[in-house]
Design brief:
The protein is 28% helix and 17% strand. Strands 1, 2, 3, 4 and 5 form a 5-stranded antiparallel sheet that branches.
Amino acid sequence: MTLTLLELQQQFAALVPALIQKAHSLGYHVTLGDAYRDPRAFGSLGEFKAYGLPRSAHKQRLAIDLNLFSLGGEFLTDTKYHTELGTWWKAQHPNARWGGDFNDGNHYSFEYNGVK
């Protein structure tokens, strides 16, 4: 059975708190980056208007960027800090994708119709 976009959006939203909790359990502090990218500012799916990819899971409400910080407050920008969390995320759902696999380390998403 193929899931609808709405069903995937609901499953994604339900798993994001677990993602944040997992980051905390790994010893990181987290702030939120981009989640939904409104088409009025970023264009519809397939359209480039501001920044990011024209075909982005953020435009489908299926992605979030997490910023990791050390317990001392250092912003950890290198993808290597996301590796364990990204591996964990991909194991949570068959559609779960981690941006570290495509040069966007702080990106956590669900794939839908080839968009990740």
